[in-house]
Amino acid sequence: MKASPMNHDDEYQLYDLKVEVFKSDDDKPMVCRHNEGDYFTLTDDDLISFPPGVKFPLYPLAAILPLLPAKQRILSPNDWMATDAVIACPDPYCGGRFRITRGELRTYRHSEQTLVPLSGN
Fold first, then answer.
1. Which pLDDT score, from 0 to 100, does residue 3 have?
2. What was the pLDDT predicted at 1?
């Protein structure tokens, strides 16, 4: 059962994210078919969008995806996830890096994202 439109006690906030490719400072070539400046965004709670023409290799994407839900959330300033924003390509021979930046902080409602009711747990 969904909460009434006037009931906003089920709100939570998530940041939009942008993940952008850049080249590391060392002399390693970017060998994994990602290109400097390519990016994707994570908005509207869980939708990943790529600009037209951008392709992204599977293995770097697989390495980045588990970090994104934590980066979306408001964190303690002491949490390492609040400060660390650069991810290395999982290929040890690749010089590609991925910078995660936060964008707009959006408000969502539990009742609009799931049919499972809130409980006291």
1. 41
2. 38
Coil/strand/helix, residue 72: helix
Q: Write down the pTM of the prediction.
A: 0.85
Element holding 17 (H helix, E strand): strand 11-23
Measured CA to CA, the distance from residue 121 to residue 91 in angstroms comes to 41
pLDDT at 78: 95
**Beta-carbon contacts of residue 28 (< 8 Å; ≥ 6 apart):** 93, 94, 95
Q: Give ∠ CA 21-90-103 in degrees, rounded to 5.
A: 35
CA–CA gap between residue 62 and residue 29 (Å, rounded): 20
* Cα-to-chain-centroid distance, residue 42: 5
Give counts: helices (H), strands (E), the chain: 4, 5
Which residues of the chain carry a pLDDT beneath 70?
A: 1-8, 120-121
